[in-house]
Amino acid sequence: MKNVFLITDDAALRRSVEQCAQAHRLDVQATAQWADARDILIKTHFDAVFIDYEVMKLEGLDAFILLDNVLQKESTIASLILRKPSARASQFIDSLASFGPAIELDGKPPTPETLQAPFDACVRSATKAAPQQDVNQSSHGPLLVEVHLTTAREGTFADVSLARALYTLAFTAASGTLFLKHDTLEHHYPVFEGRLRRPYDARYSPLSTLAKSFAWSRGSYRFTPEPIADGPTEDPYRFIYLSIERHMPSREVMQAMMPHMRAFPVRTNHWQARTESLRDLAILHRFMQACDGQTTLERALGSLGADATRGFQAALYAVETDLLSLRAEPTFQSVSIQYNREIARFRQQQVDAQTKDSKAYRARGSGRASLEAELTEFLERLEHATPYEIFGVWEGCGREIIRSKFYEMVKQHHPDVYGGNISGDVKRLVQEIFITIKDTYEELMKIEGEQRRPRPEPTPADHAPGPRLGNPRSFGSESAPTRPAIPRAMPHTSTSRADAPRPKLSQPKATPSAGADATAPTSSRQSRIERLKVKRSATPIGLGREPSTPIIAAKPRARTESQADRRAKLARIRTNSSGGRSNTGMLRAADTAANAFNEGYSAWREGDNTKLAAERFATAYNLEPGNGKYMTFYGYFLFLQDAANLDDALRTVEKAIEFKDRQSLPDAHVFMGHLLKVKEEHKKALRHYQIALRLNPKSRDALRAIRLYEKRHGEAGNADSSPFWKNLFKK
To answer: What ranges do the domains of the chain cover?
Structure first.
């Protein structure tokens, strides 16, 4: 090992790394820009690469993936230098094969003293891996490891551990009742689609007793497939980890892992898929980082130091849930778990069933007729329900709960969910449903203010299996397809949420219950609610709709010509009104997120109306929270509207940058630069301006900001000495 490469723009960090490298007689080459580093790495071979995370994180995940590809071809080990702990950086390290252990400064300044020990560890890791890289040259692709996952519905803990039994239920997404027995003690637990359902019936035991069952030295289990009511559930993977950590005796944990101390643990494909949901389990992440396939289990546990006991628990959990594969010899390939045929066939059937049951698939496939019937009946049910029943909220719940419920319903019922290639009837129905939801939202927001009443206590009927009003699948004449079961296994035979009958909707009471005077609404507010109910019973939600008539079971609603004309008129009115202005100059509500964004952008660029633009950007973002462009402008205008929102604006714009939206990414970097300048972090702001200018060479805002920075920070105050000015006026 002779040459190392450093990517950083911090002069102090560069000097410290160079001094640490002298102890190993290493040559250090450094650069401050990722664009230059990429070219250097492609042209020159290095034995190790050290990366300042503060520089690389601005480039995003794409830069890390490109760097990983380059380093793998060159058989080079990389190490991140973290100034402070970062869960996001840990995810990068775990998911990229060429990255070794990180150098963590824990908030300390970069000095040779703080860097020497972790730097030496990284050099030893790179030196150890370097001569063995030729062993892997003949290997192509991931290593497939055959694993048998039991399909027995019952057994003893001597044959199958409780952790493995719960993992099987979670992986196969089974629904039913799990029975645990120890001597004369027996507990029952509901399982819904692989997740641990919180007890909703007196026959079920609390989940806390299931966690304590990990302390049993013996016992048996039995699983009976049956429909389970939907409702609050617990993540089974986290539940297994915490139960092992809190209740399983340490002696049993160590006894289970001691026979494998000389094995070489390798991370599997399941680890990368579950990293996000387990991100707060620090000991597990530290242990998994050490499981690189070339380190024995004994050494991996030893790297945890004083946390070795908890490391045993993490190791047992990783083995029981197939996050690790224990190999008899060093392994230089990634490992993918391949289960027995019954499990693999069942999982594929699950994926196919979910795809065929999706709205987009049914809207353009053979299920179009049944979908249209379901949507028709769902729309009729909406027209006969109160606003509170449509949103599943209660009087006095407050605007925040209504707003969050509205966002959920937008994601579920937006016309884009059904795709673009759909019939005219389906398209008309989904648009009417979405308009109804938006009108309901506006009505509830006019009535509700601050929360005045807590959520009512659930009744036994609330826990009964059955569809909800917000699910159009629940009102169809055709039941959802039943998912296939695993033969002789813990199968997933749960009935669809839409298959069970739904109790009739009940109108909310007009008068408060006894003892609720302290939270009862005022007389004026109650009168508004009553007027709203009368209005809805006379004319359902949606301008131009005819008064509702009694619904005859199994009989489709007649579509008269006058109704069609009214609906066409409604569409024209909404389209024309979306771009108009009222006498007060305020823009009317937009029908789509795109219209809202365009109105906000025009208000900002043409009229310099920051408040109005912020409102329009917020509307667009609320309707499509996953759109990087809307998130970019919404985040920046949080700050423009109120400087106290600076931290929220920084987080929002930083998240928008991660979306990598090509159209708005230059603006996102410019906005981030502006926000960082307010925080007096001029160096970081400059990096964002440079990235914005690289993405869009015509960006005047980025060019102006860089010019101002160069002028203020030029050598000895001379702007002409700046490299930027020399290049700018070069002929």
So the answer is: 3-136, 154-335, 362-487+495-513+529-538, 625-728
The DSSP symbol for 203 reads T
Q: Give the residues across from 587 on adjacent strands.
A: 581
Other C-beta atoms lying within 10 Å of the C-beta of residue 594: 15
Kind of pairing between the strands at 324-327 and 264-267: antiparallel
Q: Taking the alpha carbons of 510, 513, 517, 521 in that order, is the dihedral positive or negative?
A: negative
**At 436, is the secondary structure helix, strand, or coil?**
helix
Pairing of strands 220-225, 176-182: antiparallel
More confident residue, 599 or 569: 599
Q: Please report the DSSP string for 255-298 in residue order.
A: HHHGGGTTSEEEEBHHHHHHTTTTTT-HHHHHHHHH-BSSS-HH
For residues 108 and 524, which has the higher predicted lDDT (pLDDT)? 108
Cα–Cα distance between 646 and 676 in angstroms, integer? 9
CATH topology (fold) of 3-136? Rossmann fold (3.40.50)
Residues 14 and 29: their CA atoms lie apart, in Å, by 10
Q: What is the pLDDT of residue 484?
A: 36
Distance, CA of 316 to CA of 160 (rounded, Å): 14
How much is the pLDDT for 62?
A: 62
Note the pLDDT tens digit of each residue in 715-724: 434 444 445 4
User: Strand, coil or helix: what is 229?
Assistant: coil
Mean pLDDT over residues 652-672, rounded? 87
Nearest to 387 by CA among 400, 372, 367, 406: 406
Confidence at residue 94, expressed as pLDDT on a 0 to 100 scale = 65
Q: What is the CATH T-level fold of the domain 625-728, as seen in this structure?
A: 1.25.40
DSSP code, position 619: H
- Chain-centroid distance, C-alpha 726: 46
- Whether residue 481 is predicted with pLDDT greater than 90 in this model: the reply is no
